[in-house]
Structures are given as structure tokens and as C-alpha cells.
Amino acid sequence: MDIIDPLADAYASQFTSPDEGLLQEIAATTQTMHPHAHMLSGHVQGKFLEMISYLLQPRRILEIGTFTGYSALCLAKGLLKDGKLHTIELRDQDASVARANFNRSIDAEKIILHIGNALTIIPELQETWDLVFIDADKVSYTQYYQLVLPLVRPGGVIIADNVLFHGQVLQQPVSGKNAKAIQAFNEYVLQDVRVDKVLLTIRDGLLMIRKK
Q1: Residue range 139-157, pLDDT digits in tens
Q2: What is the C-alpha separation between 169 and 115, in angstroms, rounded?
């Protein structure tokens, strides 16, 4: 299902600031070489993440789900001078590609890549987060959220990707393991009085959550 009209999507991209060269290369290589290229954040969403990071000026960013490193590089742009971005990737091969991409960036020293299960790694980091981006296995979204929210500073932001899950959450009844997990996550956050939230129809849906 095309959630966003392709013409509107192309128009939005046309009137969005272009990516820098490295991001363009990563996007192009991922699109041509990776069997799951649809997982890439892409131009408009990447620029949105970059802008949110610039506005928040975070000292600590957590990304759950690195993929090939595109979104991490977008998020890292707004870090304070002494800021760090921790990004967690389960798959060794994707982590290897991401590391190579990070090493080509001027923000390389600000990015710390962890390989393994995020549910295990996050408690070991002992950080307070200003900005969190969740874009990993959909079945664990609620667990990730429950784990990181107490570690987010008041006024900090969590952004969850794929919350429309290819339009499958719009179909009743919701079916499929991942779509059901995303629907349960959306409903859980809706009922959480500790946060304000807005669901944005960017790409495959972004749920933007601000801790009160």
C-alpha cells in the first residue's frame, strides 16, 4: 500500500534540502546493493531527523537499529561539540558496512557502534538520553520504549519509525506479527500519560514522543 501519494513524496523531496555527498552515496549504494534497501530512512525522513537533532542540540543520542548508518549520520549532525551518538545493530554484516560509512564522516569520533541485542546493551550504557530513535525489530518496540523512557531526560524526545507499517495497521483487523506489534506499541504510547505524542505521516510513519 502506498501510504503517501508518490507524487506528493517526490514533491516533498524536491523542496527539501539535498543530502551531502556521503549520505547520497550511502543511499545509492544501499538501494542498489542491499536486499532490504526499503529499510533505509531516505532523503526526507533523514533531513527531518537531522533538523530535530539540530533543534534539540543533544549531548547524548541513542539509535536502536543502525542498518547501513544513514540515519545515524543524519542524527549526529546536531550533536553538541562534546556529544556522542550510540547506535546498536544486531546484524554483523550491516554493522560492518555502517562502521565503514561512519569512518568516512567528519562525525566519526562522535559515533559509537555497538553490535548485539539492544535489550542487553542499553542498560550497560548508563547514559541519560536527549534523543532516541527506535528503528529495529518491530516485535520489541514496546520493550525498547519501556526500557529507554526512564533514561530519557524530561523534555527529551523519542522517535519511533515504521509506525504505519506499510499501511497494515490501517487494515481491520490488523494481521501479521509485526503489524500487530506496531499497533500494540502505538496504543501503549497513546495511553502513556508521561509523554506527549504526535504521529507523523512521513515515509512509513514516525511517532514523535516528548517526555514531560
Answers
A1: 999 999 999 999 999 999 9
A2: 30
